[in-house]
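TICKET: design request
STATUS: open
ATTACHED STRUCTURE:
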């Protein structure tokens, strides 16, 4: 899979721009605050219909405009796929092969990406919401049905919380209907996540073992508020946990158990990675990214597009080498950087762009 071209209109500081890319390595060179990360963000947005930097869609639209458009020509093993997103105050329009898509799960998955940005280094020590976001983005690209189940779960969760807040007298029969739906969708989300984490751990441990010169092993633990031993019992356990949490939920007026409370824990040689060195944590994140690439390739048949946002300077020579070795020749890669000094072993299919004040030039 590779992105042949992209066109932007009113995206961040780009009023209008078009570019064609190499199917290998594409380097965006420029000083800070010139628009390098914005450009990578546009590619990410084209794949996932959302930004990795902000929850506010309005921030993506150029301050002088009322709507933005991002379009690209994607090439996969199955053929070319035109993609397009139009975002305005009225909402979002997504198109595949020039046809509007009614559901998010119908759009996401056509173009898969793996992003490695400096903020990913917070994945180990940051808030649980960061790890849930990591799960949702990666799993959503691999299994579109996951996005559908998650969306349905979040919809019912919102209903349940609204009901808890709106009344002092709880109708247990009505709540039981909501709980049944919540446990149904929630158990599917948990099952998707549980399997994904098993696959991720297997692949990431292999990479981490190599990066650490065979000195360290990596384990990933799924911390679910719904305890289960067997996948067939997840829904029943969910309903039992909801019943136990009833008094707490009525008092707090929100739902205390479920996938929205999930978390992950990382262990290096059985030690919680939050207590590891910065170098160990960077190796861990690098291992996760390399594992993501393999999982997406296995699930979709195509390698994802790799986005590296100013991370080469964050890695020492050893980890840079492991990253470059992990990037297969047929993985299209986009790198933003302020200097080429720390990049070496350039491939033949290289294209360098300079970015200055929202203007893109090909060297």
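STATUS: resolved
RESOLUTION: sequence designed for all positions
ATTACHED SEQUENCE:
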């Amino acid at each position: 899979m590779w992105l042949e071209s992209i066109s932007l209109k009113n995206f961040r500081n780009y009023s209008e721009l078009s570019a064609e890319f190499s199917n290998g390595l594409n380097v965006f060179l420029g000083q800070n605050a010139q628009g390098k990360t914005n450009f990578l963000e546009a590619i990410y947005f084209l794949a996932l219909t959302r930004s990795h930097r902000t929850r506010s869609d309005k921030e993506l639209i150029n301050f002088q405009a009322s709507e933005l458009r991002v379009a690209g020509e994607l090439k996969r093993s199955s053929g070319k796929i035109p993609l397009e997103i139009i975002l305005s105050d009225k909402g979002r329009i997504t198109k595949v092969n020039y046809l509007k898509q009614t559901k998010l799960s119908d759009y996401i998955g056509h173009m898969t990406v793996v992003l490695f940005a400096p903020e990913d280094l917070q994945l180990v020590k940051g808030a649980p919401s960061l790890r849930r976001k990591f799960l949702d983005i990666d799993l959503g690209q691999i299994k579109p049905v996951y996005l559908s189940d998650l969306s349905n779960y979040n919809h019912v969760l919102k209903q349940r919380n609204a009901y808890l807040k709106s009344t002092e007298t709880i109708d247990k029969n009505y709540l039981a209907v909501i709980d049944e739906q919540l446990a149904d969708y929630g158990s599917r989300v948990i099952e998707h996540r549980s399997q994904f984490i098993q696959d991720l751990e297997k692949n990431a441990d292999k990479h981490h073992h190599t990066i650490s010169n065979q000195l360290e092993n990596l384990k990933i633990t799924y911390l679910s508020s719904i305890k289960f031993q067997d996948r067939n019992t997840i829904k029943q356990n969910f309903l039992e946990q909801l019943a136990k949490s009833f008094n707490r939920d009525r008092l707090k007026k929100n739902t205390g158990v479920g996938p929205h409370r999930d978390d992950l824990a990382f262990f290096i040689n059985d030690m919680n990675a939050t207590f590891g060195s910065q170098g160990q944590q960077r190796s861990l994140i690098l291992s996760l990214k390399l594992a993501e690439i393999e999982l997406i390739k296995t699930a979709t048949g195509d390698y994802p597009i790799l986005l590296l946002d100013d991370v080469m300077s964050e890695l020492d020579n050893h980890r840079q080498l492991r990253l470059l070795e992990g990037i297969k020749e047929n993985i299209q890669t986009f790198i933003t950087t302020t200097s080429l000094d720390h990049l070496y072993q350039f491939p033949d299919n290289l294209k360098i762009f300079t970015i200055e004040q929202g203007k893109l030039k090909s060297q």
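CLOSING REMARK: The chain is about 40% helix and 25% strand. Residues 14 and 39 are 8 Å apart (CA to CA).
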